[in-house]
Amino acid sequence: MLRRLLGAALVLWGAATVAFAAQVALPGDRATIIFNIRAGQPIERTPEELAAINAQYGFQLPVLQQYLDYLSGLVRGDLGNSYQQFRPVTAIIGEQLGATLVLTASAIALAWLLTVLWVTATAGRGRRTSGFGAAVDTVSAGLPHYWLGVVLLLVFALELRWVPVISDGSATGLLLPALTLAVPLAGFMGQATRTEFERSLAQPFVLTARMRGMSDLGVRVRHVLRHSALPAVTLSGWALGATISGAVVVETVFTRAGIGRVLVTAVNNQDLPIVTGVVVLVAALYVVANLLVDAAHVLIDPRLAKGTTS
Amino acid sequence: MSTVLTDAAPGAPRPARTGRPGGRTRRPRPWSVYLATGTALFFLVAVAAPGVLDTTDPLALNLSQALQAPGPGHWFGTDEAGRDLWSRVVHGARPSLAIGAGASAVSLSLAVVLGSLAALGGRVVGPAVDRLVEVLFSFPSLLLALLLVALLGPSALTQAVAVGVGTAPGYARMVRGQVLSARGSAYVEAAVALGHSPARILRRHVLPNALRPLVAIMALSIGQSIVWASSLSFLGLGVAPPSSEWGALLEAGRPYVAHAWWLTVVPGLVIVALALAATTLGNHLQSLLERRES
Predict the structure, then answer these.
(1) What is the Rg, in whole angstroms, of the alpha carbon atoms belonging to chain A?
(2) Are B225 and B163 in contact (CB under 8 A)?
(3) Fewer CB atoms near the end CB (10 Å): N or C, chain B?
(4) Residue of A nearest to B131 (CA)
(5) Tens digit of pLDDT for each residue in B25-72?
(6) Nearest residue in chain B measured CA to CA from A198
């Protein structure tokens, strides 16, 4: 467990280093860029004006000093200051993070629900049904978020008018964006789970359970599902990151507030501290999620605990 | 939509048919492979000679025909300036596939270099590259791509590089695994026992065997790259709208979604068709290669 934590810390440090390197690598003089971003057009600046900005952001310091400052800032939970808005990045992200986390959490929950229902219903039921189930998995895994989002929007919001067109804070407004993220994710998880599910169905313990007189549904839900859930659990750590990056697109489709919108605006404006701030944050979430996934593995399959060094 | 998952995907072994005398050694190709091949051929024609498939000039304005729904005159409808969407989609194949292929080339080259270094780099370089890949992998592909777009500014070239770098870590892991398993195989052991030099073993045995699956992965990766690249365009961070690149078509059609659904649904459907065709062909190739090996 200690080794895992150390590995996680190393990845985080690496992510922070990449983020810092990206800020330094921004082509051109950063003080000039900041002025241009704020003015919205390139204007010649006097050295005094540039010096003030340099002092404010610490650009005149040696790069190594800046790097150490950045790292120590991260440890204190400071992601630097936005180039465009005169505010700390943490404040800007903090305002929008909640909406995105609600969206991703409901999307992952919805994806689990869809996967469990679909795989339990179709896996290992003869060639035709299983084949159809697998084909649906493949197709839904390949659906781009922007397209699925637009189609759902057209059908359910514009045509049927069941839900609002613009996703506000309400629960009905959350439904379509969450579904847009959940369907491709469920496709991936279905692909990972289906093979395992069919393998588990052929195991001796399934036969034993059937001999005890358990119904087919009971066997699937009580025994097989637990065995085949592992690959999908493994995916969940990755899914969190993928869902957040999917949220970038989905928030644009449904004009929904969140860090995705913040990120797109920041990329457009070359507001690097916000971009790297979001990226580091998502990397951190990914690392934490994977630690949790490792822990969940042992809970689901206690046999794995023997293999780990604790 | 991750790259690492593609290997966990379909290609899963179907339960073998039993009860047939002699058994079947060759499975017939599934119909989806024919469909995918047909789709791929269509797009190749659109890339090579768009003039064969288009019905009018893709940029010809015709305001009297603006926002026409799909019908006999305009198979895919028209946009707000009366441009024919079918012709635009056909002409969009070239920029879209060029960006996709470019991204895929960037991605796989990076993956081969990083993956081989991680597997063969010895005690110092190997783990270091391993860590680097792990760090890059902790950034979701789209976010890594967005970071590069922020640095380089939006353009077609940036799009290809950004998507390529964004998807590389997943493939690098895959290559690493392939190289490791080739290195640990019996034929490499035999070559070592025969006293062949490490360079020769690497060139003749390890790399060819480790990189063979890349042919299949290439098909998968082009499909994925096109989806990611069009996502960037859709966000307004790729090729700018006068271009007929499919993502740019989507972005241009987005304001009209309530009045002219075809402007977003149709180009999206085209991308989905191409991505599915690429995935199907890639998986098919992969299973062919696996069967030959076993």
Answers:
(1) 24
(2) yes
(3) C
(4) A11
(5) 456 677 888 888 998 898 888 888 888 778 788 777 777 777 778 878
(6) B15
Partners of residue B166 in chain A, C-beta under 8 Å: none
For chain A, 310 residues long, give each residue's pLDDT as a single digit of tens: 778 888 888 888 988 898 898 888 887 777 887 877 777 777 777 777 788 778 778 787 888 888 888 888 888 888 888 888 778 888 889 888 999 999 999 999 999 999 999 988 888 788 888 888 888 988 888 889 999 999 998 888 887 888 777 766 677 788 899 999 999 999 989 988 888 888 888 888 888 888 888 888 888 888 888 888 887 888 877 888 888 888 999 998 888 889 998 999 999 888 889 999 998 998 888 888 888 888 888 787 777 766 544 3
Domain range for B116 is 32-43+74-293
* Domain assignment present for B50: no
Backbone angles phi, psi at B16, to 5 degrees: -65, 145
Would you report the helix, strand and coil content of chain B in percent, each value rounded to 5?
70, 0, 30
**Amino acid, res. A253:** V
Residues 174-233 in A contacting B (C-alpha not used; CB under 8 Å)? 184, 188, 191-192, 194-195, 198, 231
H helices of chain A, in order, are 2-25, 30-39, 47-57, 63-75, 89-122, 126-141, 145-152, 171-201, 204-211, 216-219, 225-253, 259-269, 272-300
From the CA of A99, how many Å to the nearest CA of chain B? 18
What's the residue count for chain A?
310
Q: Contact A146/B234, CB-based, under 8 Å?
A: yes
* CATH number of residue B262's parent domain: 1.10.3720.10
Q: Could you tell me if residue B189 is inside a domain? A: yes
Nearest to A146 among B32, B140, B268 (CB): B268
Q: What is the ipTM of this complex?
A: 0.85
* Contact indicator for B88, B244 with CB cutoff of 8 Å: yes
SS3 assignment, position B258: coil
Residues of A in contact with B140 (CB under 8 A): 241-242, 244-245, 282, 286
d(CA B178, CA A109): 34
Average pLDDT, chain B: 82
**Are residues A278 and B140, on separate chains, in Cβ contact within 8 Å?**
no
Say whether residue A270 is in contact with chain B using an 8 A CB cutoff: yes
Residue B57 included in any domain: no
How many structural domains are present in chain B? 1
Contact A297, A233 (CB under 8 A): yes
Is B157 inside a domain boundary?
Answer: yes
Exposure on the CB side of residue B289, measured as CA atoms within 13 A: 16
Do the chains contact at A241 and B261, CB–CB below 8 Å? no
Question: Distance (Å, rounded) from C-alpha B206 to C-alpha A214?
Answer: 51
- Residue in chain A closest to B266 (alpha carbons) equals A147
The set of residues, in sequence order, having a beta carbon less than 8 Å from that of B218 and lying 6+ positions away, is: B104, B108, B282
From the list A131, A271, A275, which residue is nearest B147 (CB)? Answer: A275
Quick check: B267 and A134 in contact, CB under 8 A? no
